[in-house]
Design a protein that fits this description.
This is CoA transferase subunit A. This protein has helices spanning about 1-10, 15-20, 40-50, 70-75, 90-100, 110-120, 185-190, and strands at about 15, 30, 55-60, 80-85, 105, 125-130, 140-145, 150-155, 160-165, 165-170, 175, 190-200, 200, 220-225. By secondary structure, the protein is of the alpha/beta class.
Length: about 230
């Protein structure tokens, strides 16, 4: 049994934020968890902003508000595209999109969530009635099912997911805290490299198995959040 635990522990790396962000190559697509501030990996986000050579990025995140840490990436001209549901409060980002310097792919929030979930499940596309008949469906394939028009949406995957959890054990299993869970578990499954920021790291066996939401198989790097 001890050999099995040791083998599990070697699958996940425990690094600093700077070391973890150092694994991300330029031009990456990056999923970032969080619904506003709840569930946002702010410690990792600061490290991402600090690494100035990282450019030509695609961000997949629910929103990119003008007060977000990640907005610094936009202000430093390091983002080529953002994919998400809520950008209207960031007037400069909207202006940049209209001027053609940043691409925005806007998805209804339910579609956004489902696209990530299905991306993690290996399903490349899906039909949904959401957005049918609106500008968001323009240029997309549609079909009628049960007398209702549906839009074909592409599932979402990424090179990297940067997420937030409450606790991790030394195998990499994750539990979340209330609504801070939001998009994080789905994003953990939909990226080639998953980096998670946690408040606490505990021994294997300390987490209640019934409360583990993300199993270690989806986690590559764990970073303990620093108090700031």
């Amino acid at each position: 049994m001890n050999d099995t635990i040791e083998q599990i522990q070697t699958k996940v790396q425990f690094l600093t934020a700077d070391e973890a962000i150092g694994k991300i190559p330029e031009g990456s697509s990056i999923m970032v968890g969080g619904f506003g501030f709840p569930g946002m990996p702010r410690h990792l986000s600061r490290a991402l902003v600090k690494r100035e050579e990282l450019r030509d990025l695609t961000l997949i995140t629910n929103s990119l508000g003008s007060v977000s840490i990640l907005n610094d990436l936009f202000e430093q001209n390091r983002i080529k595209k953002v994919v998400g549901s809520f950008f209207s409060t960031n007037k400069e980002l909207v202006k940049a999109n209209r001027e053609g310097s940043v691409e925005i792919e806007l998805l209804p929030q339910g579609t956004f969530t489902e696209a990530i979930r299905l991306g993690g499940a290996g399903i490349p596309a899906f039909f949904t009635p959401t957005a049918a008949g609106t500008d968001l469906a323009r240029g997309k394939e549609t079909r009628t099912y049960n007398g209702r028009e549906h839009v074909l949406e592409q599932s979402l995957t990424a090179d990297v997911a940067i997420i937030r959890a409450h606790k991790a054990d030394k195998a990499g299993n994750l539990v979340y805290k209330k609504t801070a869970q939001n998009f994080n578990p789905a994003m953990a499954t939909a990226a080639k490299l998953t980096i998670v920021e946690v408040d606490e790291i505990v021994e294997i066996g300390e987490l209640d198995p019934d409360k583990i939401v993300t199993p270690f198989i989806f986690v590559d790097i764990v970073v303990k959040r620093e108090e700031v």
